[in-house]
Amino acid sequence: MLVVVVGVPGVGSTTVTTKAVERLKEEGIEYKIVNFGTVMLEIAKEEGLVNNRDELRKLPPEKQKEIQRLAGKRIAEMAKERNVIVDTHSTIKTPKGYLPGLPIWVLEELKPDIIVLVEADSNEVLMRRLKDETRQRDFESTEDIEEHLFMNRAAAMTYAVLTGATVKIIKNRDDLLDKAVEEMVKVLK
Q1: Tens digits of per-residue pLDDT, 71-115?
Q2: Which residue, among 17, 33, 15, has the nearest Cα to 116 in the 3D structure?
Q3: The dihedral formed by the CA atoms of 45, 51, 56 and 58, expressed in degrees to the nearest 10
Q4: 180 φ, ψ to 5°?
């Protein structure tokens, strides 16, 4: 099975996914979590194009698209051998607007079975971002976060239309992480 997990920065999608995979492992169900950006970086490094992740976005757009496609293909190959969860972004907010995190050339390679959106209230996301001293994020208002959440939902349904994948929304509310993890476990079984 190939599952794509997405969420706006600060929503906790990686935390929910990691804890769900740990719980499933106790039941004998194994998943490999793969970060899409990391696979892109590996491919670009193999081709001698970049030294770090920040250099990826500076490559010519056509080269970035080709690396995205190759990353999708590499991940799809992994999923032939085992269950894979792709940790990525549904949309990427840029100064010029939103970019799809999974453009058609990636979806054609990945062919996901399930797309999971991890969400939280925009106020909760804002507070999590403000408390996270490990990251240097641009400030966004709750309205900006709500817009990004909406764009993620719209993109996820578009991805589902193109692939036949199901879309599941999991709420990761403050102080209810265990509930979100349990819901993710049910989706992944």
Answers
A1: 999 999 999 999 999 999 999 888 888 989 999 999 999 999 999
A2: 17
A3: -130
A4: -65, -40
